Amino acid sequence: MKKLFASLALAATFAAPAWAATQTVTLTVPGMTCATCPITVKKALSKVEGVSKIEVDYATKLAVVTFDDAKTSVQALSKATTDVGYPSELKK
């Protein structure tokens, strides 16, 4: 019986996925110069795997992004906006 439990515990260790956490970050996007810029930024962020929610505000030049940190990272989010002409970085 002990071997069975040990085998199951070992199998669970290797079979269990890494626990992902949902994170919300705020990116500064200073290059947004018109009211339509947020549309491009939001579209770029929406294509990043793991992103579940995006709010982009032209007036404050901020993008608030909720994502699964097992699927993407802040660096990938920033790259997505940069690739469409709007460099961004994590708000400090």
Query: What is the averaged pLDDT score?
Result: 86
- Name the poorly predicted regions: 4-16
List the helices and strands in order: HEHEEHE
The strand line-up of the biggest sheet is 2-3-1-4
What can be said about the biggest beta sheet?
4 strands, antiparallel
Oligomer: single chain
The beta-strand count equals 4
- DSSP strand (E) fraction? 25-35%
The structure class reads: alpha+beta
Q: Assign an overall shape.
A: globular
Helix share, percent: 25-40%
- What radius of gyration results from the CA coordinates? 19 Å
Span from first to last CA?
A: 54 Å
What is the tally of helical segments? 3
Can you offer a commentary on this structure?
With 92 residues, the chain is an alpha+beta fold. Helix content is 37%, strand content 25%. It is built from 3 helices and 4 strands. It has a 4-stranded antiparallel β-sheet with strand order 2-3-1-4. Helix 2 crosses helix 3. The longest helix has 14 residues, at 2-15. It is globular and about 40 Å long.
Summarize the structure.
The protein has helices spanning 2-15, 37-46, 74-83, and strands at 22-28, 51-57, 62-68, 89-90.
Entry keywords:
single chain, about 90 residues, alpha+beta, four-stranded antiparallel β-sheet, 3 helices, 4 strands, mercuric resistance, Heavy-metal-associated_CS
Give the topology.
Blueprint: H1 2-15, E1 22-28, H2 37-46, E2 51-57, E3 62-68, H3 74-83, E4 89-90
Antiparallel strand pairs: 1-3, 1-4, 2-3
